[in-house]
Amino acid sequence: MIGDLQNPDAATPLDPNELDGLKHKHITTQGELDQLEQANIGSGLRWLGRQRAHVLTDDFVITLHKRLFGDVWNWAGTFRKTGKNIGIDPVHIPVELRTLMGDAQYWADNKTYSPSEAAIRLHHRLVKIHPFPNGNGRHARIMADAVLDRAYKAKPIDWAGGYDLQKMNERRTAYIAALKAADQDDIGPLIRFVGPRDDL
C-alpha cells in the first residue's frame, strides 16, 4: 500500500476505502503511482484515438474515466460516494452530469460559444461536479479535448503549457485560481489561462 502519498494543493484526497481500490498492491510511493497512472492514461488515449462514439453523453464520460484509470483503480468509471474537498454532493452527480452533457450538446448544435470557450466551460463544470474519486482534472482536460476534436473539429488545448499540472508550480497555481474564479461565475481567468487561440 502507498506509504508516501502526496497530494498537490487542491488535489482530491483519497479516503482509505478508495486507496484500497489500488489494483497493484506493490506500489508504495507517489512516484510509482504517478508512473502507473501515466501509463494507463497513455493506453486510454490510444483507445480514445480509435473511438468514433458520440462523446457528449454521460456514458462516454464514465467509459473514458474507466479507460484512463481502470488498469490502476478498481473504482475507475464509478461515481464517488464520499464528499471531497471540492465537488457537489455525490447524490447529485448523475443528474448534474446528464444536465452538463445536454447543455454541451446544445452549445455545439447552436454555436452558443466558440469551440474553445465551449470546451473550457465543459471542462470547468465537469471539474466542479467532480464525478469520480480521483483523476477528475486529468479526465476533464482530456474530455474537453475530445469534444473539441469530435464535436467541433478543432485542435486540443495546451492545458499544461510546458508544465506538469500534477505537481505544484506556477502553471498549476494559475489553473486552480482560474477554476476557483469560474466557480464564482467568472470564466475570464480560465479563458486567459488557456491563452490565445484562433477562436477565442
UniProtKB/TrEMBL annotation:
SUPFAM superfamilies with a match to the protein in the record: Fic-like
Gene3D superfamilies: Fido-like domain
Segments forming domain Fido: 56-196
Segments for region (Disordered): 1-21
Active site residues according to the UniProt entry: H130
InterPro entries: Fido (IPR003812), Fido-like_dom_sf (IPR036597), Fido_containing (IPR040198), Mobile_mystery_prot_B (IPR013436)
Name of the protein in question: Mobile mystery protein B
